[in-house]
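Researcher: I'd like a structural prediction for the single chain below. Treat it as a standalone chain; there are no partners to consider.
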Amino acid sequence: MAVDTLTFTAVTIIYLIALMALAYMGYKKTKEAEDFMLAGRKVHPALIALSYGATFISTSAIVGFGGTAAYFGMGLIWLTVLNIGIGILLAFVVFGKKTREIGSKLKAVTFPDLMGKIFKSRFMQYASGLIIVVGMPLYASAVLIGGARFIETTFNISYTTALLGFAIITAVYVITGGLLAVIYTDTLQGIIMLVGMTILIAFLYVNLGGITQANEALTEMAGLVPSSLAATGHTGWTSMPSAGSPIWYTLVTTIILGVGIGVLAQPQLVVRFMTAKDDRSLNRAVPIGGVFILMMTGVVFTVGALTNVYFYQKTGMLAFDAAGKNLDSIIPAYINAAMPDWFVILFMLTLLAAAMSTLSALFHTMGTALGNDLLSRAKNYRLTLWKNRAGVTFMIIVSIILAFIMPGSIIARATAMFMGLCASAFLPAFTHGLFSKNPSKRAAITSLVVGSGAWSLWTAFVHIKESEALGLCQILFGKAALLGSPWTVVDPLIIALPLAAMSLAVVWALDSYVWTKKESGSKEPAI
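Model: Treating it as a single chain, here is the predicted structure.
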């Protein structure tokens, strides 16, 4: 990026000093294992909202999904609608209150711990922890890669140095200060992100002559859609793709539904609800969280789509072509071309804040799942503060190693994959556990096994982007995917989540039938 490195280095140092000061505050207030995992259960509503939002929105959401909006168009704004409606309103008011209430009553300290105690099942706690420890490093590594690539380009240093430095700085405050440090630093990072995105949308519309003129110009560009995209269903940047087309399936099933629904069962987000003092705190967090998500996803999807207008007016090319046919380069290319130098520095700080806030939450969630939920199964195990810190340290090392192994262009795909896996494995059982008077352990176990199994099989053998990359289907069956179009572009979530929900319903109904017979004293054979 074209920016004075010395100035940005000075700004970054000030930012890091502020982070370390906040981390120290968290460290001083962290006395016991529960402080490390749940921040004392009395966090201020504004901090909950900003921490939740900053954790939810990573660099991939700003750069990766912004570039995706430039490609697919403003149809991605449906994801903003889902993010606010489901990710904030439904999550805080409905799921959040029940999570806080039950979590406090059962004294649960992590998401797997909550699942285990609701269903009185060690299997649920162990399996939930295992999915987090095995699946979340994929997401954490993707965020780590995105941040490291950004630092590498900005400071002109090696990728290895950037990745290790980024991971170590984040690790220091997570390991020492636990969730309190994560929430304090998330808040600062959330404020930086809000300021950056507000200025970004204001400058965009000024550059393009106003809101109406910019949006009308984008609509009139529908005739410029490349023939290859039009053939797969693209109809323009202000309209949805043709229903049932390959682009429609990718946009609706993977991006809008995959990320929009997946947020409800994200362990690193669910645990935020258990830090609230009472239901009133969660109610007060809703408007702040709603505005934050609107200003993050709504702005970046709008800016992404409208970069086509900017680049076409300035260069005669669409954004995708102007950015060298790399979706991840569209937003940075626009920032460099259209924004003043001082904003380039602010935007880079925004990206750094987005990456660090998400990464710190993932490190903390993985580490506590390992330290509290998996290792605690060992005989005579006693949970302590240092064991939690050791768990976090180990998972950070795993994530760093994975980040060196993973292929390129993996950031957005890994994000959608992890959210899809969480929704398929956890969402039906989690919902059942929160809202049923007598939750069924067998139904929850069945749902978790069916959901995670179906998601894994569809990913490995049908969804072409993953099955082709993994190569397992090719080795076993001699072809990249077992099914043909359109199944190869249908996201695993669309198959696995309904199967998990149906299996839960069937087993729950059988359990209810058995219990009803027992209570009525029937002599009919139980199922």
